[in-house]
Amino acid sequence: MKKSLGAKTLVFPTPVWVIGTYDRRGKPNAMTVAWGSICCSTPPCVGISLRKATYTYGCLMERKAFTVNVPSETYLKQADYFGTYSGREENKFDATGLTPVKGDHVDAPYIQEFPLILECKLIHDHEIGLHTHFVGEIMDVKADEAVLGENGNPDIEKVKPVLYSPENRVYHGVGRFIGKAYTIGRK
Amino acid sequence: MKKSLGAKTLVFPTPVWVIGTYDRRGKPNAMTVAWGSICCSTPPCVGISLRKATYTYGCLMERKAFTVNVPSETYLKQADYFGTYSGREENKFDATGLTPVKGDHVDAPYIQEFPLILECKLIHDHEIGLHTHFVGEIMDVKADEAVLGENGNPDIEKVKPVLYSPENRVYHGVGRFIGKAYTIGRK
Known about the structure:
Radius of gyration of chain A: 17 Å
Strand order of the largest sheet of chain A: 4-3-7-10-11-6-5
Helix content of chain A: 10-25%
Distance between the termini of chain A: 30 Å
Oligomer: homodimer
Strand content of chain A: 35-45%
Structural class of chain A: mainly beta
């Protein structure tokens, strides 16, 4: 029997991604989001949703560029900090000691210490309600050599990204390999 | 040192969600997506991206409603099947033996056997490129009693959702609890 829980943002999994931007004076900022996903294959695009009240919202509108930085479990404490405080009051890079690096392709900083990075150019925004949905074209994916697998792509077991549970407000890691896609369901 | 991998849809984690729709004749269909996320808190909304070529695209445009069905690991084989074949050629519910149930709030079927369901009303669509981004307002969340935690919300460790790795095309389960959000990063 299914229990009805009402209209809420409760689904699994949601990511833990840190969005990198510059403000109008060039100060790098970082903010954590769980509302984000790939949203187009060609051109490759990622979508993230932000409230207007966030400092990153203004930075993104100004510079039309952002990075998606995937923290490993090792950097979860810093990612949680990035999602708890505002760049209006904090210099978050100074506070965490992490290193902002100017993107090669876009006017936004990425986080040197994080294993997987997407450089994104803003191509669309749409105000849904409390959140505005931003679509960024992925100009480049960058990864630490140490997290690459045998096929040359980042391996999720090496990147060790984090999952966020909305409503419950807890973090989980990635579990075991359970199958190959487009394979285990074939007739 | 970061290695540049080019412009591609490579990020972690991405979800494994099955989208439920009716076609114009009322046949229930199911299609698996990895391009999806919550995209607004108020009103609560979820976004999914679909190619125009999919059968679900037409169903969704016609009925303006869909469900998001979160498979547990137990149903990964069926979810992979739903993502491998088209509803144009297949009656996917007949083929899998899963049970389509008419939503209480929207004109779309959900999958009885899956532990976590979102009933969604289409409120916006935007063609990005190969994929169109659909925003659905979440009218209700439904969950099996068996996956509820102590606080009455679904527990990710009981739901056992699946993660998809783009490019590598593999599935992983959820790992261990690693921290409380808005807590471990506090100063």
